[in-house]
Write a structure and sequence with these properties.
Blueprint lengths: L3 H6 L6 E8 L8 E2 L3 E3 L4 E5 L6 H8 L7 E6 L2 E2 L5 H11 E4 L11 H11 L1 H6 L4 H11 L16 H13 L5 E5 L7 H18 L2 E5 L11 E4 L6
Parallel strand pairs: 4-9, 4-10, 7-8, 8-9
Antiparallel strand pairs: 1-2, 1-3, 1-5, 5-6
Length: about 240
């Protein structure tokens, strides 16, 4: 991570630039406060902290799915807070791959169709694929050890670990500039966890993609350029 002045001097806008960020679920609860950060494009940040420290909330704020109580969020040089809900959704579809903790897969679609979904929602992600979206999806599914026999199955017919890897492939397709990953290895065994981390960061390095990765597994921090701990909210 860099300071705001260092990021500005480098010319290109930071992937993530956050200042004075706060969020409150309701007036009866203490506000979550988040540290300022400026993550350069292509850098990877490991975010950890105890339950209740706001890790998942922070990712939802970065993705534009929650409005903050205060502060500023700039992604790739764009201040996302003044955008309408529709424009925030469009910005996220074009530029951000999100791996949700609950996966958020479309239950009536096949594994392959779930992975190609971002290319149907975003012409930019479609244009960024080096080949047909179906073929790009198949390459990602193969790299994440999803058998070919499972590609045409509905995701509800697959195991939790397989669903998690399909959610990861969906986030990676179309080379988004930012990946937001919320506990993306929680349902994986050690072999698939290591395969996933290697694929994610190798692809990110090759495409200059920034990664914000949330996990309780501190052993994964060694793979990332930077790490940041959120503090537990006092009650």
């Amino acid at each position: 991570m860099t300071s705001h002045s260092e990021s500005a001097s480098q010319g290109a806008p930071a992937a993530l630039d956050v200042t004075d960020l706060t969020f409150r679920w309701d007036k009866h609860q203490p506000a979550l406060t988040f540290p300022d950060l400026c993550l350069s494009q292509g850098k990877h940040l490991f975010l950890h902290g105890p339950s209740g420290s706001g890790k998942s909330t922070f990712l939802s704020l970065m993705a534009g799915m929650l409005p903050p109580t205060g502060g500023k969020i700039r992604l790739l040089g764009t201040d996302i807070l003044p955008l309408s809900a529709g424009k925030r959704d469009g910005f996220r579809a074009d530029h951000i791959g999100v791996i949700f903790q609950q996966f958020n897969l479309v239950p009536y679609l096949t594994a392959e169709a779930n992975v190609t979904l971002p290319c149907r929602l975003s012409s930019r992600r479609r244009a960024a694929t080096d080949e047909a979206p179906a073929r790009a999806a198949q390459r990602l599914l193969t790299a994440l050890a999803i058998p070919q026999s499972h590609w045409k199955r509905k995701v509800t017919q697959l195991s939790i670990g397989q669903q998690q890897r399909i959610a990861a492939a969906r986030a990676l397709i179309g080379s988004p500039e930012i990946i937001l990953a919320d506990e993306p290895t929680s349902a994986l065994d050690s072999d698939n966890r290591d395969r996933f981390i290697n694929l994610l960061l190798t692809m990110a390095e090759a495409r200059n993609t920034s990664v914000l990765f949330v996990s309780h597994d501190r052993s994964l921090a060694q793979h990332f350029h930077h790490q940041l701990q959120l503090r537990e909210v006092p009650v």
